[in-house]
Amino acid sequence: MRHGLDHSTASVVLDRTRMRKVLQRAGVIGETTEALPSDSREVRELLADAGLAQQVRRLADEVGMEAGEAQALAAGYLRSMAAAQTDRAGEAWRGFASWMTRAHDFLYDEEAARRIRALDRKHSLFFLFSHRSYLDVELSVTLHSSGIDPAYVMGGANLDFFPFGAMARKVGMVFIRRDTADLPIYRLILRSYIGQLTRNHKNIAWSIEGGRSRTGKLRPPAYGILRYVVDAIEAAQDGPEALIIPVSFVYEQLHEVGTMTSEARGGKKRPEDLRWLVNFARSQGDRLGHAYLDFGEPLPVRQRLAELRGEDPSGEHLVERLALDACHRINQATPVTATAVVCVALLGVDRALTLDEVLDTVRPLAQYIARRKWPVAGAANLTDRATIRRTMQDLVHSSVLVSYDGGLETVWRVGAQQHLIAAFYRNTAIHILVDRAIGELALLAATEATGDAARTAGVESLRLRDLLKFDFFFPSRAEFIESMRTELELLDPAGAEQLEDFDADQARAWLAAGNPLISHLVLRPFLDAYNVVADRLADWEDSEFEDFEEQRFLDECLRVGRQWALQRKVASEESVSLELFKPALKLADHRGLVAPGLAAAKGREDFAIELRETVRRVNEVAAIAHTGETV
């Protein structure tokens, strides 16, 4: 007769009764480094990996930790991020996701999904998506309905709360910490776990931006997870090609945008917990139209890495360039919505507009979009009066716009304190307009040239590319110059032949003929924000850069920005945003301006002069667009 439980049976009992974690939190038992019955395949494989155990011991020596303690810590980290996928949990999750996304009708390209399903039979797929909402969980529903194997989705540990975390972990959600700079063992285990998923040919999905966009446009990529994936692919000498699948999410409107824009104005972010989840779910009861999920052109990882090594044998920036390639393909797959073009029109003026006045801006913009062959969400007719009117009515319903119909005809304008929300929707399409906007400013610089106008335009376009590189994705220098040629060709089919040789008068004629002129609609909010940052940097004492307080500096930018908005020294309150100030400060730091010393001080003065001059030019384009006359 047995009077106790053996180790294996005890482990099963602890797992089935869910008592293990309770006892661990109470300090009754420790973290075991042996495989448990409840451990996933990847966890069992990594716990048995002698090479990984040796790396953990090496790190333990470096940080002054006992080897056994480090091994237990590593096992705990591994189990905290491990996920599984079960049919029963998947069915429940899809029901939950459908209910959570009830504010929207999700549409996706079924033909593209069928092509990806065929690729899924032969390749490991890495879905890199633009992250605009918590509702992007719809990706798992779309993959299932399309017959594509489910993906392990990387998510922030901030979402690992009861009961959401336990449910999500059973359908492949991998909860990972964001701040791991002081956690070398955690970083090692995360790299190993992602590598093991890759070696096991699992599909993986994550936000290339590392978090939700607060501005509506695609944020600069985060490289960590992609680097781990690339390392695992390159470590395996054989095996099928792995493919990056770019995924774009676009929403006509979103309930959570108001919260995100409040944070951009300096508001405090509320932590995610059960109360937050309940409130978020309740908000989805109000309908907000369509949402669009689109797949971009697949990117073969091994093939592209080989190409990049051919171009740069040192291989120093392979992952960064691969990430930028993926971001470009996400942008190319992102359709333009009617909401975006309406917000472009209404954010460009500081007054109410009639329907005809809105269409005066939208029509040439729609023609430009068609000539550039950019996709339009739902194949909508952006020049249709009923479509534009209905879009504005929907925005009035959600309080983004206000309307007045007590006069001769209805007029619309952006509502008070709603500029950042309208800008979020505009920015979902801003990537298609940036090159055109830079081309206009380059032509304006050419009209002011006393020497070689063509050279002035070329230098100016490259200067703006460098100025805005922390906010927008640009192709290589050669590809960018070719893009400028394409934009000039759209203005004047014969103009591309004169790109290397034209004078100020020709530049003036091209600018006057431009329809639409859009640099003030697209770039002025960013340049105004950069101007605030440059002005404050130039005004700070050199001693304040010896121990630079970033938060105090950004708070001052918010206060001064609000003052300038009231004084109309910036064109719109949308420029008063931490999400616009931070890239400008990052640029200044990249130029060595956030530092003490005479050279940095002189650089800050030059930076302020550069931004004042750039803002002057973008305001000049606005005046030309209004009057149709160049100076």
Describe the protein in words.
This protein has 631 residues and is an alpha/beta fold. The protein has 28 helices and 11 strands. The chain has helices at 7-16, 20-25, 41-47, 50-63, 67-81, 87-100, 110-120, 138-145, 164-169, 184-199, 224-235, 257-264, 274-283, 301-311, 318-333, 338-347, 355-371, 385-397, 419-427, 434-447, 453-467, 477-491, 504-513, 519-522, 524-539, 550-567, 578-590, 598-627, and strands at residues 105-108, 124-129, 151-156, 173-176, 203-207, 242-251, 290-295, 299-300, 353-354, 401-404, 411-414. Strands 1, 2, 3, 4, 5, 6, 7 and 8 form an 8-stranded mixed sheet that branches. It has a 3-stranded antiparallel sheet with strand order 9-11-10. A hairpin with a 6-residue loop joins strand 10 (401-404) and strand 11 (411-414). Mean pLDDT is 91; it is low at 1-5.
Structural key phrases:
28 helices, 631 residues, single chain, 8-stranded mixed β-sheet, 3-stranded antiparallel β-sheet, globular
- Roughly how much helix do the residues carry, as a percent range? 55-70%
Number of strands: 11
Biggest sheet: strands, sense, closure? 8 strands, mixed
Distance between the termini: 102 Å
Tell me, briefly, the overall form.
Answer: globular
Count of runs of 4 or more consecutive helical residues: 28
Low-pLDDT stretches = 1-5
> Can you give the mean pLDDT?
91
Radius of gyration: 27 Å
Fraction in beta strands: 5-15%
Helical/strand content category = alpha/beta
What is the element layout, followed by pairings?
Layout lengths: L6 H10 L3 H6 L15 H7 L2 H14 L3 H15 L5 H14 L4 E4 L1 H11 L3 E6 L8 H8 L5 E6 L7 H6 L3 E4 L7 H16 L3 E5 L16 H12 L6 E10 L5 H8 L9 H10 L6 E6 L3 E2 H11 L6 H16 L4 H10 L5 E2 H17 L13 H13 L3 E4 L6 E4 L4 H9 L6 H14 L5 H15 L9 H15 L12 H10 L5 H4 L1 H16 L10 H18 L10 H13 L7 H30 L4
Parallel strand pairs: 1-7, 2-5, 2-6, 3-4, 3-5
Antiparallel strand pairs: 6-7, 6-8, 9-11, 10-11
Helix pairs in contact: 3-10, 4-5, 4-10, 5-10, 10-11, 14-15, 16-17, 16-19, 20-21, 20-22, 20-23, 20-28, 25-26, 25-27, 25-28
